[in-house]
Design a protein that fits this description.
about 400 residues; mainly beta; Immunoglobulin-like; 2 domains; 32 strands; rod-shaped; disordered N terminus
Length: about 400
């Protein structure tokens, strides 16, 4: 029966082991719906931190979705595109084909100078500079179904079928350092300064010392298909490569109480990586300030043909009042600058018939004849946010005599 090897998670270098744990860090993992991200407490979950490209599915090869992260980028394997993609930590600069033309890329790892990946169909592990140059697809070859990749302590580590292996980064002869019992295939692998951890498609996560001694194949139990593994501080995280998928974690020391970080994070997740980035919610959009002026409560004077009306302004700014030559007006306000507003405020406006010009005389004559006359005012509002608006209003002047 053909074995569909699966892949992997990020291995963090030993220096990351000293970083703080769960509160101030982020997880990244890959599944069929996209590259996802969340904080280590499950907050700010984004199932499509990087969505699928328009030219095809995000990934289409079950269990072969390696993820790695460094100080500037997140990297992921896309076997359906035969490529490795990368994205800036803030989600910008997506490159779906950062490294292309690969044969079923699986596990990924990065250090300060290079990116490493397993090619399951090609039976090899490749290496390239972090800018994508100096590609060496045969850095290690002749491997049957390589899956997970990790780097640290001067070595490159990998999983393949039922065993763990390593080779010095400076070159040398690969060596198997641990052989499993053949009950399940190994996949995810991660390394710190003392141990190598592995998972896969069984029901446990194992660990072994860096030289292969003192193996603990059931280091963490009660888990299902822990396909990818990542370390951050004193914690270990993994993905359950199943439907529905789960992202889980526990302390490296102690009783290993398994905690679910994200439930249903996307179908069949495998690769997972961790770093010390905290994902914060986006800032709320700036409030949409209104520019609408409203007129309220017109009333008439009791001894003279004057009209009073309140004008409501929605934000800080300044205003002017426009009337024809027949009307005089004033703003009744105790503010030092009655036409200037420090925020949402009201102003009381008084209007009465003018004098000394033909229009004013005609208005007064109409008031004496009919007892009332209709006039129009305009208010020009210059808001603090730079917008300018105008409101017009018809009013009645009433002669109470």
């Amino acid at each position: 029966m053909k074995v569909i090897a699966a892949s992997l998670a990020l291995a963090l270098v030993a220096a990351l082991a000293s970083l703080p744990g769960r509160a101030d860090a982020a997880l990244y993992w890959s599944s069929g719906s996209g590259l996802a991200r969340a904080n280590m407490d499950g907050s700010e979950f984004d199932g499509q931190f990087v969505p699928a490209a328009s030219t095809g599915p995000f990934v289409s090869y079950a269990g072969c979705q390696g993820v790695a992260v460094d100080s500037s980028h997140v990297y992921w394997a896309e076997p359906s595109r035969r490529s490795i993609g990368r994205v800036d930590l803030d989600g910008s600069g997506v490159e779906y084909d950062f490294l292309a033309g690969l044969e079923n890329p699986c596990g990924i790892a990065v250090d300060g100078t290079s990116i490493y990946w397993a090619e399951e169909e090609g039976g090899q592990i490749g290496r390239a500079d972090l800018d994508g140059g100096a590609v060496d697809r045969d850095f290690v070859d002749g491997i049957t179904n390589p899956c997970g990749v990790a780097v640290g302590n001067g070595y490159l580590y990998w999983t393949a079928e039922h065993y763990l292996a390593r080779v010095p980064l400076s070159g040398g002869i690969p060596e198997r350092i641990y052989e499993g019992n053949g009950t399940f295939y190994f996949c995810g692998v991660a390394v710190d300064s003392n141990h190598l951890y592995w998972g896969g498609f069984g029901e446990s996560i194992g660990r072994v010392e860096l030289d292969g001694s003192r193996p603990e194949p059931s280091f963490i139990t009660g888990v299902e298909r822990p396909c990818g593994i990542a370390l951050e501080g004193s914690r270990i995280y993994w993905t359950r490569n199943d439907l529905p998928g789960v992202v889980q974690g526990t302390d490296l020391e102690g009783s290993h109480v398994v905690e679910t970080i994200v439930d249903h994070p996307g179908g069949g997740p495998c690769g997972i990586a961790a770093d010390s980035t905290t994902v914060t919610p986006p800032p709320p959009p700036p409030p949409v300030l209104s520019h609408v002026i409203s007129f309220r409560g017109a009333r008439h004077g009791t001894h003279s043909p004057a009209t009073f009306i309140r004008i409501r302004f929605p934000q800080a700014g300044s205003f002017t009042v426009r009337t024809g030559p027949a009307i005089r007006w004033r703003v009744l306000s105790h503010a030092p600058a009655p036409l200037t507003l420090s925020g949402p405020e009201e102003r009381l406006l008084e209007l009465w018939p003018g004098a000394g010009n033909r229009a004013a005389k005609a208005l007064r004559a109409r008031l004496r004849r009919t007892g009332k006359a209709q006039v129009r005012i305009g208010v020009d509002f210059s808001a603090q946010d730079g917008a300018i608006s105008t409101k017009r209003k018809w009013l009645f002047l009433v002669d109470p005599r």
